[in-house]
Amino acid sequence: MIDISLNNIEKYYGANQVLENVSFEIHSNDRIGIVGKNGCGKSTLFKIITEEEPYDKGNFSKRKGIKIGYLLQDNSIYNELKVEKLLYEGFKEINEIKNQWICFYLNFENNIEEYGKLQEHYEKLGGYTTEEKIKKW
Questions:
Q1: pTM exceeds 0.70 for this model
Q2: What is the overall mean pLDDT for the chain?
Q3: Options 3.90.226.10, 3.40.50.2000, 3.30.565.10, 3.40.50.300; CATH of 2-62
């Protein structure tokens, strides 16, 4: 299944063309890396994929419901974080549900039905497999 597709993407900053005819697809379960010299457009490409920035020409599509995360090029804000904690940051909704779930668990006087709904939502989001995925990375 195609998660992300770019076809002949072009991007300009003023008269300076940063990306020219960039085309590729990313399929489910692909692991990719983008390498290149400084200033060749890697960060711009990620900004287009995350829809932080528009592109000037071409076609871009992504699978409905897909979540995309990436680390900023300026990694000074990450210096205090361990890699594992940083990876968990990409699963904020799952972590929030897990924290609510723990609170319900610790306070049995709360509604057991609400606890069950949280558990079901956590499972649908992949909460039980998140830790396994992070350990594999």
A1: no
A2: 82
A3: 3.40.50.300
